[in-house]
Amino acid sequence: MEDEFSYLAILFSEPNFEGEKGIGVAISEKDFNINNVEGSISSIDVSSVVPLNESSSGGEVTFYDDIECAKKENIKSIKAGDSPGGSSLSQFNEFGKSVKFNDWDVLSFEIKRGCWVIFNTEGDFSGRSHIFKNEGCYPSLKGSYVYLPHPEDKRKPKIATVFCNP
Protein backbone atom coordinates (compact mmCIF):
# COMPACT_ATOMS: atom_id res chain seq x y z
CA MET A 1 0.00 0.00 0.00
CA GLU A 2 1.30 3.43 -0.94
CA ASP A 3 0.85 5.06 2.48
CA GLU A 4 2.33 2.25 4.60
CA PHE A 5 5.38 4.35 5.37
CA SER A 6 6.78 7.71 4.49
CA TYR A 7 9.45 10.18 5.49
CA LEU A 8 9.24 12.16 8.71
CA ALA A 9 11.12 15.46 8.65
CA ILE A 10 11.69 17.13 12.01
CA LEU A 11 12.55 20.81 11.63
CA PHE A 12 14.43 22.62 14.38
CA SER A 13 14.83 26.35 14.98
CA GLU A 14 18.35 25.85 16.43
CA PRO A 15 21.48 24.07 15.17
CA ASN A 16 22.37 20.53 16.30
CA PHE A 17 18.78 19.22 16.15
CA GLU A 18 17.57 21.46 18.96
CA GLY A 19 14.91 24.12 19.07
CA GLU A 20 13.63 26.53 21.66
CA LYS A 21 10.48 27.36 19.71
CA GLY A 22 9.35 23.76 19.26
CA ILE A 23 9.50 21.51 16.26
CA GLY A 24 7.96 21.37 12.85
CA VAL A 25 6.89 18.23 11.09
CA ALA A 26 6.73 17.37 7.41
CA ILE A 27 5.67 13.88 6.34
CA SER A 28 5.77 12.64 2.71
CA GLU A 29 6.05 14.62 -0.48
CA LYS A 30 2.29 14.69 -1.14
CA ASP A 31 1.17 15.69 2.38
CA PHE A 32 3.66 18.37 3.40
CA ASN A 33 3.04 20.24 6.66
CA ILE A 34 5.30 22.61 8.59
CA ASN A 35 4.20 24.01 11.94
CA ASN A 36 5.49 25.31 15.27
CA VAL A 37 8.87 26.56 14.04
CA GLU A 38 9.15 30.30 14.40
CA GLY A 39 11.76 32.16 12.38
CA SER A 40 14.38 30.33 10.40
CA ILE A 41 15.01 26.59 10.34
CA SER A 42 18.59 25.81 11.39
CA SER A 43 18.62 22.01 11.32
CA ILE A 44 16.50 19.21 9.95
CA ASP A 45 16.38 15.47 10.53
CA VAL A 46 14.70 13.13 8.07
CA SER A 47 13.91 9.45 8.61
CA SER A 48 11.67 6.91 6.96
CA VAL A 49 9.01 5.80 9.42
CA VAL A 50 6.05 3.49 9.68
CA PRO A 51 3.23 3.49 12.20
CA LEU A 52 4.60 1.60 15.21
CA ASN A 53 1.99 -1.15 14.94
CA GLU A 54 3.43 -2.05 11.53
CA SER A 55 7.10 -1.74 12.47
CA SER A 56 9.23 -4.83 12.21
CA SER A 57 12.37 -3.39 13.82
CA GLY A 58 11.60 -4.81 17.25
CA GLY A 59 13.03 -1.59 18.65
CA GLU A 60 12.46 -0.18 22.10
CA VAL A 61 13.21 2.94 24.15
CA THR A 62 13.36 2.68 27.94
CA PHE A 63 13.26 5.73 30.22
CA TYR A 64 14.79 5.63 33.73
CA ASP A 65 14.48 7.83 36.82
CA ASP A 66 18.19 7.49 37.69
CA ILE A 67 21.46 8.08 35.85
CA GLU A 68 23.35 5.28 34.06
CA CYS A 69 20.08 3.69 32.83
CA ALA A 70 19.12 2.54 36.32
CA LYS A 71 15.76 2.49 38.09
CA LYS A 72 15.05 4.01 41.50
CA GLU A 73 11.27 3.84 41.45
CA ASN A 74 10.09 4.54 37.90
CA ILE A 75 10.78 3.03 34.52
CA LYS A 76 8.80 3.24 31.27
CA SER A 77 9.39 1.36 28.02
CA ILE A 78 7.93 1.97 24.60
CA LYS A 79 8.32 -0.84 22.08
CA ALA A 80 7.67 -0.95 18.37
CA GLY A 81 4.01 -1.92 18.13
CA ASP A 82 2.85 0.07 21.19
CA SER A 83 1.10 2.72 19.08
CA PRO A 84 -2.13 2.22 17.17
CA GLY A 85 -0.58 3.95 14.17
CA GLY A 86 -2.74 5.84 11.75
CA SER A 87 -3.61 6.59 8.18
CA SER A 88 -3.11 10.35 8.16
CA LEU A 89 0.52 11.06 7.29
CA SER A 90 0.30 14.60 8.67
CA GLN A 91 -0.21 13.42 12.25
CA PHE A 92 3.04 13.43 14.22
CA ASN A 93 1.88 11.13 17.02
CA GLU A 94 0.23 8.59 14.73
CA PHE A 95 3.72 7.48 13.74
CA GLY A 96 5.11 7.68 17.25
CA LYS A 97 4.17 6.94 20.81
CA SER A 98 4.44 9.69 23.42
CA VAL A 99 5.06 9.37 27.13
CA LYS A 100 4.59 12.23 29.59
CA PHE A 101 6.74 12.57 32.69
CA ASN A 102 4.19 14.31 34.93
CA ASP A 103 4.99 12.72 38.26
CA TRP A 104 8.65 11.73 37.88
CA ASP A 105 11.88 12.96 36.30
CA VAL A 106 13.52 11.02 33.50
CA LEU A 107 17.29 11.18 34.04
CA SER A 108 18.59 8.61 31.53
CA PHE A 109 17.30 6.40 28.71
CA GLU A 110 18.28 3.57 26.39
CA ILE A 111 17.56 3.11 22.68
CA LYS A 112 17.48 -0.37 21.13
CA ARG A 113 17.24 -1.45 17.48
CA GLY A 114 16.16 1.25 15.09
CA CYS A 115 14.12 3.56 17.31
CA TRP A 116 14.70 7.23 18.10
CA VAL A 117 13.26 9.70 20.53
CA ILE A 118 12.45 13.41 20.72
CA PHE A 119 12.34 15.04 24.16
CA ASN A 120 10.57 18.34 24.86
CA THR A 121 10.44 20.55 27.94
CA GLU A 122 6.71 21.27 27.51
CA GLY A 123 3.86 18.78 27.26
CA ASP A 124 2.66 20.21 23.94
CA PHE A 125 6.07 20.37 22.22
CA SER A 126 6.19 24.17 22.49
CA GLY A 127 9.38 24.15 24.58
CA ARG A 128 12.94 23.05 23.91
CA SER A 129 13.23 19.97 21.69
CA HIS A 130 16.12 17.61 21.12
CA ILE A 131 16.32 14.41 19.07
CA PHE A 132 18.38 11.31 19.91
CA LYS A 133 18.92 8.49 17.39
CA ASN A 134 21.99 6.45 18.35
CA GLU A 135 21.49 3.08 20.01
CA GLY A 136 22.70 2.47 23.53
CA CYS A 137 22.39 3.98 27.00
CA TYR A 138 22.36 7.75 27.40
CA PRO A 139 23.66 7.83 31.00
CA SER A 140 22.46 11.31 31.96
CA LEU A 141 20.24 14.08 30.64
CA LYS A 142 21.49 16.51 33.31
CA GLY A 143 23.11 19.57 31.80
CA SER A 144 21.65 18.83 28.35
CA TYR A 145 19.62 21.17 26.17
CA VAL A 146 16.39 19.67 27.54
CA TYR A 147 17.44 19.17 31.18
CA LEU A 148 19.05 21.81 33.38
CA PRO A 149 18.35 21.31 37.10
CA HIS A 150 19.65 24.77 38.03
CA PRO A 151 17.31 26.37 40.61
CA GLU A 152 16.69 29.38 38.36
CA ASP A 153 15.90 27.34 35.26
CA LYS A 154 14.48 23.97 36.40
CA ARG A 155 14.29 22.82 32.78
CA LYS A 156 13.48 19.13 32.35
CA PRO A 157 11.78 16.87 29.80
CA LYS A 158 8.02 16.73 30.21
CA ILE A 159 7.28 14.58 27.15
CA ALA A 160 9.11 12.25 24.80
CA THR A 161 7.93 10.73 21.53
CA VAL A 162 9.42 7.50 20.20
CA PHE A 163 9.59 6.60 16.50
CA CYS A 164 10.84 3.41 14.88
CA ASN A 165 12.37 2.97 11.45
CA PRO A 166 10.93 0.36 9.07
List keywords for this structure.
166 residues; Gamma-B Crystallin, domain 1; 4-stranded antiparallel β-sheet; 0% helix; globular
The CATH homology group name of the domain at 51-164:
Crystallins
* Multimeric organization: single chain
Could you tell me the number of beta strands? Answer: 11
Tell me the strand order in the biggest sheet.
Answer: 3-1-2-9-8-11-6
Short summary of the structure?
The chain has a domain of 114 residues: Sandwich (Gamma-B Crystallin, domain 1). The chain has no helices and eleven strands.
Can you characterise this structure?
This protein has a domain at 51-164: Sandwich (Gamma-B Crystallin, domain 1), CATH 2.60.20.10. The chain has a seven-stranded antiparallel sheet, with no helix packed on it. Mean pLDDT is 78; it is low at 84-90. The protein is built from no helices and eleven strands. 0% of the residues lie in helices and 43% in strands. The radius of gyration is 15 Å and the shape is globular. The chain is mainly β.
Map the helices and strands.
Blueprint lengths: L5 E9 L3 E10 L15 E7 L10 E7 L3 E10 L17 E4 L7 E5 L2 E6 L8 E4 L3 E3 L20 E6 L2
Antiparallel strand pairs: 1-2, 1-3, 2-9, 4-5, 4-7, 6-11, 7-10, 8-9, 8-11
